Fold this sequence. Notes:
Blueprint: E1 8-13, H1 19-28, E2 32-34, H2 37-48, H3 56-75, E3 81-84, H4 89-96, H5 103-111, E4 117-121, H6 138-154, E5 158-161, H7 167-178
Helix pairs in contact: 1-7, 4-6
Amino acid sequence: MPNSTDNLIIITGGPGSGKSALVDALAAAGFDTAPEGGRALIRQQVRIGGTAHLDVDRFAELGLSWDLRSYDWALTRTGPVFFDHGLPGVPAFYTMAGRPVPAHVDTAARLCAYRRMVFVAPPWRAIYRNDDERRQTWPEALAVHRAVREVYPRYGYQLVELPRVSVPERVEFVLRQLA
């Protein structure tokens, strides 16, 4: 029996805001999780000498494929699945880039439903760090956050801001909100 879309829970926000640490902690607590595609796609492209991560449209298409695969996998699970981003993040990516959202991307974001309550990690300068895959500047991280806050409600999602607290406290916050 397919998983309920109410069990598909998105954690989103800009880079370096603690999303992945939260999703990792939820995985360690025994929950199913769907990791962020962006970092993996960058690693893959660098490893093979590809350049899709340098092109908005090609990178977005790879991200869309990753997110569709994660969504389909999550539907085969029997309980909550926490996503490090979700399909509405692809239209947000286009919005942040100042580009129109292609019709098929919009369709995917509309057809693939998640729990309507989406957790958004706010920009948090104290924990923001660059690394080999996260090369965005702080202003770019803020732009991603603004795009997420703009786009997710267009798809019918209610954003719940995560507090700027420790990872275990964020886990407790999320689980309390879902109870």
